[in-house]
Amino acid sequence: MSDKMLLIKGKGGLGNRMLSAVTGLVFADLTGRTPVIDWRDGSYAPIGENAYPILFDTPITRKIEEFDAWTGPVSPAVWMSQLKLTPQEMLEKSGVKNQADPFLYRKSCTDLSRLDAREDVAVFWSYLPKFGRLAGHLRRDPRFRGRKIEDVVSEYLNRYFTPNARVRNEVEAVVACLGRPLIGVHIRYTDLKIPLDKIKQTLRKRLAEKPGASIFLATDNAQVQAEMLAEFPNLTHTQKYLTPDGSRLHWPTSEVAKVQEAENALIDMWLLSRADQLIYSRQSTFSITSTFLGRLKPGQLDDVDGRNLKIVAKRIFQDYA
C-alpha cells in the first residue's frame, strides 16, 4: 500500500458524488496514492458520520478520521490543518460567493494536470466528474490506454460502490416481482426539472412497441409520481419519503432519516440499472450513474435531452473545466 494518500471528499447528490469519486479513484491509481472517501458533510448520514462506508461494502480499509489531526503538508496547501472540513465548509470559509463557477473546485482540489505532487496527503473533490481533465493521463498509462471511459467508470463503480446488504436485498426483491421487458423511467423534478412531456411521449412510444411492459419509476417529486401512476398502468415505484412541497430532500440540514433515505435512493438507482430500456435526461447524473452500473448500451437508452445542444455542450465543457 502506498504511503501517499488521496482524500476524496463529496459534494452534491448521489450521482454527482459517486461519479466524482470515481474521478478521484482513477486519479489515485494514476498517482500511486491510496484513496480514502470522505462523505461526512451530512447529506446522507448525520453530520460528522462518513456515509460512504455505511452505504457501501468497500475495499477501502483506512478511516478518514485518521487524517483529521494531520498537520503536515497537503496538496493543495489550503487544506493544511483543515482536513476535517467539507468542501462546502472550505468554500464558505474562503468567502466564495458564486458556487456555480465551474472552475471553483480547482482552488481547493489537488492539481489534476500533474501526477507528481510531493505532499504525502492530497485532497480531491469536484461537484461533477472530470474525466476529460484526466484524458491525457489515461492515454499515456498502459492500464487505461485504449479503453472506453464508460468501461473504466463501470469497473470502478462495481469495485468501490457495492451497495450494502439492505439495498441489495431490496433490489432483488423488487426485480423478482417485475415482469419483462422492464422500462425504467427517471424523472428529476425538484431543484432540477427535466422535460416531463418528453418523458411521457417517449414512454408512450416504447409501450406501443412493447405492450404490457413493466414500468419502474424513480422520481424525487410526489406530485409527478402521482401523475404518472394515474396515467400509466403497470407502473411500480419504491416506497420512500418525498417532500410535500417538491423541494430537494438530501441536504445537511434536512431532518429525515438520512441513511434510510439514502439507501432508498440507491435502491432506485440500482433498479434503473436493471432496466431493459431506460428513459432519462443527461441533465441528471443520477440517471447517468445507473447507465454505467447496468452497462446499458446505446440502443437501451432514451435520453430526452440527447439532442439539446445547449445541454450536451454544457456537459462536455464541465467534463474538461
Overview of this structure, please?
It is built from eleven helices and eleven strands. It has two domains: 159 residues, Rossmann fold, CATH 3.40.50; 156 residues, Rossmann fold (3-Layer(aba) Sandwich). The strands form three sheets. The chain has a five-stranded parallel sheet, with helices on both faces. A four-stranded parallel sheet has the order 2-1-5-4, covered by helices on one side. Strands 3-6 form a two-stranded antiparallel ribbon. With 321 residues, it is α/β, with parallel strands linked by helices.
Structural class: alpha/beta
Task: Report the uncertain regions.
Answer: none
Inertia-based shape: globular
Number of helices: 11
Task: Give a quick summary of the entry.
The protein is an alpha/beta fold and 321 residues long.
What descriptive keywords fit this protein?
321 residues; alpha/beta; Rossmann fold; 2 domains; five-stranded parallel β-sheet; 11 strands; 13% strand
Topology diagram in text:
Layout: E1 5-9, H1 14-31, E2 34-38, H2 51-55, E3 56-57, E4 74-75, H3 87-93, E5 121-124, H4 131-140, H5 149-160, E6 162-163, H6 165-177, E7 182-187, H7 196-209, E8 214-219, H8 222-231, E9 235-236, H9 258-273, E10 277-280, H10 285-293, E11 301-303, H11 309-320
Parallel strand pairs: 1-2, 1-5, 4-5, 7-8, 7-10, 8-9, 10-11
Antiparallel strand pairs: 3-6
Helix pairs in contact: 1-5, 1-10, 6-9, 9-10
